[in-house]
Specification:
The structure is a homodimer of 431-residue chains.
Chain A: H1 3-22, H2 53-64, H3 72-87, E1 103-107, H4 110-132, H5 138-142, E2 145-150, H6 155-164, E3 167-171, H7 181-193, E4 197-204, H8 216-225, E5 229-233, H9 244-247, E6 258-261, H10 263-266, E7 274-278, H11 281-288, H12 305-339, E8 344-346, E9 354-359, H13 363-376, E10 384-386, E11 389-395, H14 403-427
Parallel strand pairs in A: 2-3, 2-4, 4-5, 5-6
Antiparallel strand pairs in A: 1-7, 6-7, 8-9, 9-11, 10-11
Helix pairs in contact in A: 3-12, 4-6, 4-11, 7-8, 12-14, 13-14
């Protein structure tokens, strides 16, 4: 939607809201529909091609308003997550369908999804261990539980363990910053030998520092064999799986118990919209007792599935694929520009929209370069450490980014590097 | 704001957003301001009288845009919670001020606030007990921790304990559905004698079933003496404390460690905006290690303090007080109508905007009445049980509610009761 259409549609929406409020006392206080009314009214997968705003909007009066906030909100969410699940070719076990055991739910962030799966895994494990060892108290079992994640995983995994009151250990990633089966196996064997109970592994697809991918096909069978809940955090990278050429990165998801990615990160849906799927909804219901989708009852008021519905229909699958492909193309464009300049190096394989790079030289030199880039305020980069190396991260993420912006950014960085290196050599900062 | 002004302002906002997006490439990518820039730019308390939309909006360009999302978002939130805290006359220890140890933060719901305080209390207690008893492991301590709340408390307290992996016990409320000091003392003594470690008490001001109030002035000193974290959940009732005549209900808050109420429930702020204050921010930082306001970093993108800023300024303190007083007046109007009808009884003291009432008679009769009310779909009531009694709840909550609506509702209920009683007696349903 361009700015002109946005102005037009936005103003129509303002009138729609004002009309609604003015006539609210003419509306029924409770909907007539029966639970389950919504699914038969809409297609069972997202459209390939874009639909017009008018067509999508017409369905608001036709499909949503008769169901008001409840049950329309919950039902649309379930159906939208089936659409999205099909777009990334999730195994059918993760879909709700008409009467599946799995299904999806919208969370506020990947951190929440990780926490919820860890807690569900904790409850499930405590019950299993207690049934096998009735002499153990819940507290004794809790004290022996261990969760795992890559040393490259997001800090929210550690925080989830902290909240859940269980131990967490890092699994060492290899020289490509990915966790392989043997690394997990090693730490599991040690921990089991010392009496601990491994119960949860969070695999990362697209790590925050350098967008590396844990090896699901090796890790999954180990987790399944050891009764370990495997959760997959694909917060950023998950959106790319709608393109067949990137879907192989998700191979092995069939071994997972839960999977999450954030359409608000890279699929043009406004914050917040973090999509989470589980194979067995009953695991969540079991863990939280009181409500099927715990912590979520109050989120109904936000009706987050509406924005997903609009985006999926107004872009269509092909439009969203184009968006992803363009970003990946632009990050490769940046990668090539870096590679043509002998002063620089690429620090991790460029798979999606992130390029990790640095000047060949000390961390101090690279910190100085970052400082001059960010102080100029033309572009903004967030750095990271990969092992002991201080690394700059170029992330393609705006909806409106074009090749000219990438060129501009590289020329700017390159010029600042030239300026810096002149002073740097002159001042003899090198150590 | 009436519908006409809403149409005008809404459309101006659409243009503002479109202009912003069209010219985004002319904006700096990072703000020039220094952390702490915002507080000196705005008053240190909410205005008494309403300000115009123009005046509030002008400050967006002047105060917010130069600070972009960060640090403006965090800083405005801290200052707005100081404003709100002052409006309900919270003890100064709970305010952030320029360099206080306390302060407020916006959560998504009262459930989240309860969870966060329980987790902070858990960490604090484990550290204290471990320093006093170095021979105890963390798991052993965890296994002995107990949290408490009224048998009238919201289910989210139980869920928080479930998530935190600690025991929770109900404290019996008295015949007014409130928890008094002796009831808490009794269960604490029993539990301590059997080796448990009481660590957390959630007091409720304005319970969900009947809006009863726990006795803070008795409970607070007990909690302080016993090293028990006292959290106060005033989700609904808290908004009323902006009126001096209701502020006494909050007396005793000075004994609490944390306090929460939901401006999105009764202070005309859109969902979600749940205000939480702590006396010691370091307790939260200590509990979650990684970030001062854990689970909240991703919420920055929502900038929830903006809507609080607009509402507090456009209504002013007096406008919001009027809103609360009107609702309380209308609930008393409904109470009087009920009391004039001898077929009905009032089931709990009417303090704020909620009236619990029922037909004198069996639960079955009252269930039948509720069914006929909700099936008519003119008004909608959510029932509850008070002890063994099935009770109907009339809640005044709409921004636009007037005395005529209350009269209409009562006439409608009264007529349905007449119809029901005729059939009921005829069919001899009574047991």
């Amino acid at each position: 939607m361009d700015a002109a259409e946005f102005r037009k549609r936005g103003k129509e929406m303002v009138d729609y809201v004002a009309d609604y409020l003015e006539k609210i006392d003419k509306r029924q206080v409770f909907p007539d529909v029966e639970p389950g009314y919504l699914r038969p009214l809409i297609p069972d997968c997202a459209p390939q091609d874009p639909e017009s705003f008018e067509d999508v909007f017409k369905d608001i009066e036709k499909i949503i308003m008769p169901g008001a906030a409840s049950p329309a909100c919950t039902e649309l969410e379930t159906v939208m997550l089936d659409w999205l699940g099909k777009m990334i070719n999730l195994p059918e076990e993760f879909l709700a369908g008409k009467d599946g055991q799995g299904g999806g739910v919208i969370q506020g962030s990947a951190s929440e999804a990780t926490l919820i799966s860890l807690l569900a895994a904790r409850t499930k494990t405590i019950r299993r261990v207690q049934s096998e060892n009735p002499e153990l108290t819940e507290a004794e079992i809790m004290g022996r539980l261990v969760a795992y994640a890559s040393d490259q995983a997001h800090s929210s995994v550690e925080r989830a363990a902290l909240i859940g009151g269980v131990k967490i250990k890092n699994v060492s990633s290899d020289d490509k910053f990915t966790v392989c089966g043997s690394a997990l196996k090693k730490v599991l064997d040690e921990d089991k030998a010392s009496g601990l109970i491994p119960f949860f592994f969070c695999a990362t697809l697209g790590t925050t520092p350098c967008c590396s991918f844990d090896r699901l096909l090796e890790l999954g069978p180990i987790c399944n064999k050891e009764n370990i809940w495997m959760h997959i955090d694909a917060a950023y990278a998950g959106s790319a799986f709608i393109c067949p050429e990137f879907r192989h990165l998700l191979n092995g998801v069939e071994f997972a118990d839960s999977f999450n990615f954030n359409p608000h990160k890279w699929l043009l849906v406004n914050f917040d919209c973090s999509a989470m799927w589980v194979k067995k909804r009953s695991d969540l219901i079991g863990a939280f007792k009181l409500e099927p989708l715990y912590l979520q009852h109050h989120h109904q008021e936000r009706f987050r599935s509406l924005k997903l519905w609009f985006v999926l229909r107004m872009y269509g699958v092909t439009g969203l694929q184009e968006h992803i492909r363009k970003h990946v193309r632009l990050s490769h464009q940046f990668e090539h520009l870096v590679l043509q300049d002998e002063r620089f190096e690429i620090c991790a394989e460029v798979v999606l929209g992130l390029v990790c790079f640095r000047l060949k030289g000390s961390n101090e030199l690279n910190k100085a370069l970052l400082k001059s880039i960010n102080e100029a305020k033309k572009i903004h980069l967030v750095p990271c450490y990969l092992r002991e190396k201080f690394v700059l991260r170029f992330a393609v993420c705006s909806r409106t980014v074009e090749s000219t912006h990438v060129k501009f950014a590289w020329q700017h960085i390159s010029q600042l590097a030239t300026d810096l290196l002149q002073t740097w050599e002159h001042d003899d900062h090198q150590q």
